[in-house]
């Protein structure tokens, strides 16, 4: 006896949007790419709580020539075939994740149902997976908006440590709070929430925490608010770092004394110099070296170029400088402790090298000069 062959169509359907209609409830807008859907079919889909199933109660589509998103009278159907866009009415659609697949499992075997379920769960797991241990938390209403936010973060070098879909839950909030112990930087203590709200039962806890939540239904406004805050945080944190390194933050520079321009030989030492290498900044600590002995001269508190006081002078320029000797018990005198044969160079410490890496965009740093001064200042690598 010949085996009976059962024909099954491979339904391919994508959920475009979840909507709540007055007097009806929640519906989903779908596009049927392959196969068919009919009233009474059992469908499987992905929600914020996991995989769910329900039965189709009604199917509608817009009139011919109209888009499904355009408000108009709808045409009712008992069945639709691919390729077709439609609106589906059913129970338990309020937490459906837009941008995910929908399966028709009415005639599926148990094995096929399990495969479809595993496929949806893998889709969700892949969407929520992150590559960074430290970073912000992002929360969106759909996979499409999640992808858009992730693309923006990647382009702007913003690390994302955790992600969530739908209303911000206790679990999502706790994921964001982990950053409080992982990093001191407030730039990571952020939830970026697009088109979603915070669960009411955790709103007070969120408001009183050290996590900053940015919410908006318009992605450009959301990103604008986030960027303004991030810039403020970066500036504030940079100033704290600058204050921490204030005694070591000096750009590399080499100065040659011009012997005919010696205006004052002792504190404050005032003389003319030529900038041999690097860039000279006001308030740079300078020193000299004779053999293995390094002598601190003081702080350059004034730079004059063409008879005008300036804060910065470039390589090759001839300027006069006023060097104020601070907290040095030795009475440094030009002609006794150093003269025009000695190169004057900026003070360098291990912290200087660290600080210059952080503030590399704020100073004109000549790398060959920096390397020379690492040696001149006896800094061990």
Helices and strands in order, then pairings?
Elements: E1 12-21, E2 25-34, E3 36-38, E4 42-47, E5 50-61, E6 75-77, E7 79-81, E8 84-90, E9 101-104, H1 110-128, E10 136-140, H2 143-155, E11 160-165, H3 170-177, H4 179-182, E12 190-194, H5 203-207, E13 212-216, H6 219-244, E14 253-264, E15 269-278, E16 280-281, E17 285-290, E18 293-305, E19 308-310, E20 312-313, E21 318-324, E22 343-346, H7 350-358, H8 367-376
Parallel strand pairs: 10-11, 10-12, 12-13
Antiparallel strand pairs: 1-2, 1-9, 2-8, 3-7, 4-5, 4-9, 5-6, 5-8, 14-15, 14-22, 15-21, 16-20, 17-18, 17-22, 18-19, 18-21
Briefly characterize the structure.
The chain is of the alpha+beta class.
Question: Can you describe this structure?
Answer:
This protein is α+β, with helices and mostly antiparallel strands and 381 residues long. It has helices at 110-128, 143-155, 170-177, 179-182, 203-207, 219-244, 350-358, 367-376; strands at 12-21, 25-34, 36-38, 42-47, 50-61, 75-77, 79-81, 84-90, 101-104, 136-140, 160-165, 190-194, 212-216, 253-264, 269-278, 280-281, 285-290, 293-305, 308-310, 312-313, 318-324, 343-346. The strands form 5 sheets. It has a 6-stranded antiparallel barrel with strand order 1-2-8-5-4-9. A hairpin with a 4-residue loop joins β14 and β15. The longest helix is centred in the middle third of the chain and has 26 residues, at 219-244. It is rod-shaped, with a radius of gyration of 34 Å.
